[in-house]
Design a protein that fits this description.
This protein is of the alpha/beta class. The chain is 57% helix and 18% strand. The strands form three sheets. The chain has a six-stranded antiparallel beta sheet, with helices on one face. A six-stranded mixed beta sheet has the order 8-12-13-3-14-15. The protein is elongated, with a radius of gyration of 49 Å. InterPro entries: DNA_recomb/repair_RecN (IPR004604), P-loop_NTPase (IPR027417), Rad50/SbcC_AAA (IPR038729).
Length: 555
């Protein structure tokens, strides 16, 4: 419940402190006095958009603070706990706007974004503006009113969650299908490239081996000549060779060693050199015997190396990296091969999630049809009370989820009305006049407000277009609502104002070129005078005073 509000330098308000009570509070005043200013200021504390023009001329900033009691508001207490902003059973919302247009928002002294104030504000107060009857013509507002009355928020949350999941998966599938042509083209290219490399069938280290063999075969003549020359120098030379010289020298050293032991190690060293020379000569000779000078093999190697180098240039890699490139392309081709499987899986997910959406939408539709029947009866009865004796109201709920799914389900909701005998039910915009629309709108707001958990309701001149006996009924309806809920009603009708449990008066003063709005509560005697003013205008007679007192007594 709203306990009090403090306003500083807002619009034409210099300073204003108001305390609010339970029940219905009527707010009256002369035209242009600023009866709706307190509601506009409260809207800022509830997260409305701030503007530099809201700051009183000549002042640096405007500041609005509203205090709420939360004993019977479990939803708001839970929200504060979830957001770690709880501070006992009370809650204080504060908003500061500078003349430059900057604003700061606070909840229980903690700075917060205005969006958080707005989220909390929806749990504290429900404001019905003076243009609510115009909103009533909009289909999206009609379905919102029905949902508020039905109170199936958990179904709405589930519907929104499932719808978003379905849309997200559907978009993924659409994107994957869109890329399929590109993927198919890429797959064809990879298949061709892998086919070429498969045909080559290059081993992991084959290129290095081929390169060595090709080098050996292409230089086999020089290798043979040089190897033979080495053998000749080492052992096969007719005139002289290394092996014969080493043998002769080793024999001389052996003779010297027999005369002097100092030469024994030297003789052994030459013996080792002679043996190594002999082994080297034998190895070179063996190599010569095995040397293959097959020109056909060399031609094969020429062709294979040419193919390898050609494919390496095509793939822009070195020949010795072609094997690794081949393996990478095979892996990429395998991945692309799973594309169709991914599309099939996503399609299955989309179908399953769409079925979940349809299931929730059907449950939501059943709930709406159920509560629509209740509302049809209650609003029709209220229309009869509001001087529309032959009126009839019906909410049409048509499930179109299979073709028109949305986060709200798949229902097309339409408010239909008949105001005269024999007139068929038709959409509100086609049938109801301005006055009738205002009365129907008020009836809907009062009835739906009884089902909304928000503990405070504000009606801002929603009785426009209503007068006479109808106004008295409207006042009684609002007072009945005030018996269980805090109701604040800005009105210009004495019949409505007289039904308030309490009444506040708004006045505008002008002094030395400065205008100030003030608001204050009226006692019993002052209420009679204000009601008499509303009844009789500028001339207040004993009769109008008596009529005003009758209004209070009747309430």
């Amino acid at each position: 419940m709203l306990a009090d509000i403090t306003i500083q330098n807002f619009a034409i308000v210099k300073s204003l402190e108001l305390e609010f009570s339970k029940g219905m509070t009527a707010i009256t005043g002369e035209t242009g006095a600023g009866k709706s200013i307190s509601i506009d200021a409260l809207g800022l504390c509830l997260g409305d958009r701030a503007d530099a023009n809201m700051v009183r001329p000549g002042e640096k900033r405007a500041e609005i603070s509203a205090s709420f009691t939360l004993e019977q508001n479990s939803a708001a207490r839970r929200w504060l706990q979830d957001n770690e902003l709880e501070d006992g059973d009370d809650c204080i919302l504060r908003r500061v706007i500078t003349k430059e247009g900057r604003s700061r928002a606070y909840i229980n002294g903690n700075p917060v974004p205005a969006s958080q104030q707005k989220a909390l504000g929806q749990l504290l107060i429900n404001i019905h503006g003076q243009h609510a009857h115009q909103q009533l013509l909009r289909p999206e507002h009609q379905i919102t009113l029905l949902d508020q009355y039905a109170g199936h928020q958990s179904l709405l949350d589930k519907m929104a969650t499932r719808y978003q999941r379905w849309r997200r998966t559907k978009n993924e599938l659409k994107a994957l299908i869109k890329k399929k042509d590109d993927i198919d083209a890429q797959q064809q290219l990879l298949e061709y490239q892998v086919g070429e490399l498969n045909e080559l069938a290059l081993g992991e280290e084959e290129y290095q081996q081929i390169e060595e063999e090709h080098k050996r075969l292409s230089n086999s003549g020089d290798i043979a000549m040089t190897s033979q020359a080495v053998v000749d120098l080492l052992s096969d030379g007719e005139e002289t060779n290394t092996l014969s010289l080493l043998t002769a020298a080793q024999q001389r050293l052996s003779e010297l060693a027999a005369l002097d032991s100092h030469f024994s190690p030297l003789a052994e060293m030459l013996e080792e050199a002679r043996i190594q020379t002999q082994e080297t000569s034998q190895e070179v000779s063996s190599y010569l015997d095995q040397l293959d000078m097959d020109p056909q093999r060399l031609q094969y190697l020429d062709q294979r190396m040419s193919t390898i180098m050609s494919l390496a240039r095509k793939h822009q890699v070195q020949p010795d990296a072609l094997y690794e490139t081949h393996q990478q392309l095979i892996q990429e081709l395998e991945k692309l091969g799973h594309n169709d499987e991914a599309i099939e899986q996503l399609q299955a997910d989309v179908d399953r999630q769409f079925a979940d959406c349809l299931d929730t939408a059907e449950k939501l539709s059943k709930s709406r049809r159920r509560y629509a029947k209740e509302l049809n009866k209650l609003i029709t009865q209220s229309m009869h009370q509001l001087s529309m004796e032959h009126g009839s109201f019906e909410i049409q709920v048509e499930n179109k989820a299979k073709t028109h799914l949305s986060p709200l389900g798949g229902d097309a909701v339409a408010f239909l009305v008949s105001t005269n005998p024999g007139q068929p039910l038709q959409p509100l915009a086609k049938v109801a006049s301005g006055g009738e629309l205002s009365r129907i709108s008020l009836a809907i707001q009062v009835i739906t407000a009884q089902k909304v958990e928000t503990p405070s309701l504000i009606f801002d001149e929603v009785d426009v277009g209503i007068s006479g006996p109808t106004a008295a009924i409207v006042g009684k309806l609002l007072r009945q609502l005030g018996d269980s809920t805090q109701v604040m009603c800005v009105t210009h009708l004495p019949q409505v104002a007289g039904c308030g449990h309490q009444q506040m008066f708004v006045a505008k003063d002008t002094d030395k070129g400065s205008t100030t709005t003030r608001m204050y509560p009226l006692d019993y005697k002052a209420r009679i005078s204000e009601l008499a003013r509303l009844l009789g205008g500028s001339e207040i007679t004993d009769r109008t005073l008596a009529n005003a007192e009758d209004l209070l007594v009747a309430a």
